[in-house]
Amino acid sequence: MTEGTIWKAILYFSLPMLLSNLFQQLYNTVDSIIVGNFVGAEALAAVGSSGSIIYLITGFFIGLAAGAGVVVAQEYGAKNKEATKEAIHTSLGIGIVFGVIITAIGIISTDSILKMMGVPESVFDESSVYLKIYFTGMLSTMIYNMGASIIQATGDSKSPLYILMTASVTNIILDVVFVKYMSMGIEGAALATIISQTLSAVLAILKIRKSHDKYEFRFRNIRIHMKTLGRIFAIGLPGGIQNTAVSMSNIVVQSHINSFGAIAMAGCSAYQKIEGFAVLSTTSFSMAMATFAGQNTGAGKHDRVRKGIITGTLMSVTSMAIVSVVLYATVSELIAVFNNDSGVVYYGVRMMSFLVPGYLFVSASDAIAGSLRGMGKSVVPMAVIISCWCGLRMAWIAASTRVYHDIAAVFLGYPISWTASFIILVIYLKRTAFRKEIN
């Protein structure tokens, strides 16, 4: 990432990550499709309501994993072998500790969070069962996320792709077997997911262990080095706090959606799964930009970092514009794949019509934020995104729904908050991060 044509370096690194994220997205999406078609709309609503809760519990760690990836990328870019080794073993130690903690928190807090969200009684029990089974697999999820961050930080974006391809195909097969043929319902969908997540964790560890020349990995060396831990927290903590805050905001939004009933929940859930695929390019470019900026910052190539931010942001926005056009043309048919009830399709299409205009702004915001994190400047994107995607969004929804009790008021909170974050991040870049004293 520190040599050659910038757009090629970003594109070639992001494409395998795009496919990796595609297969990652397949986990809950396949659950929703199988459950929506073979169990029903209320079961689809139950799976859908779980998404924001899962991310609330796991979002903090995902931010830390991103911070660990930046630390590994910086040391790897600086060719500091001993520091790279310490960062890798500390990162995996963090993954194990947080995996155990998140499992306990998730199982204990599930029912309380569902009640706080106002999940209807008709889907409450199924939501609870799905989440509690899902959280039993959190250790595997944490280990995989940390392992993938390590692998990607050293410039290998293909191995996580192959791992997720294997795990996702496994998940699809198990979903069909457990739900369709064994009639295990929503429990079968959750069980299929955690088995697949465990497989991905095992494969990630095997990859790191086999690449001894690059990672110097040994199980006996897994421990938390306090100095490295401090660096990981310094970079990853803002991202973790940001993810948690955004997740809490999404729970507030989901509670407003829940007030419109199970059909609205199912329709919005189906669209949110589709949206997960629509924004994959944005997520992939953001992750690629973090690694690009991290390696080049570590190598002292600050002018290349500045050029990369501009190039990567334009690439992210262009890809999102293409995806948005396709989404407009196909959304009704895509929602019907989950459940063809006319009410479900109606709510999904309506949500799309409000959110798509804001996707260009969220793609630019994510690319800039990822670059800043790679440079070690993670506090600013955290503050901007929490202020806009949480504070502004919740304030808008709270105020607008009192005046106009329509689900459209809830949907509008997304493009408004995305646009605001884009404007603020651009101003910050022009006034600070793009100065010559970037380092």
Automatic annotation (TrEMBL):
Q: What is its main location?
A: membrane
Please name the Pfam families in this protein's record. Answer: MatE
Cellular component terms per the entry's GO annotation:
plasma membrane
**Where is this gene product found?**
Cell membrane
This protein is called MATE family efflux transporter
TM spans (from-to): 6-23, 53-76, 88-109, 129-148, 160-182, 188-208, 309-331, 351-372, 379-399, 411-429
Tell me which positions the record assigns to the signal sequence.
none
- Report a single Gene Ontology molecular function: xenobiotic transmembrane transporter activity
Coiled-coil intervals, chain numbering: none
Species name for this entry?
Peptacetobacter hominis
UniProt superkingdom: Bacteria
**Membrane topology designation:** Multi-pass membrane protein
Keywords recorded for this protein, A-Z: Cell membrane, Membrane, Transmembrane, Transmembrane helix, Transport
Report the InterPro entries cross-referenced here: MATE_fam (IPR002528), MdtK-like (IPR048279), Membrane_Transporter-Flippase (IPR052031)
* Source taxonomy: Bacteria, Bacillati, Bacillota, Clostridia, Peptostreptococcales
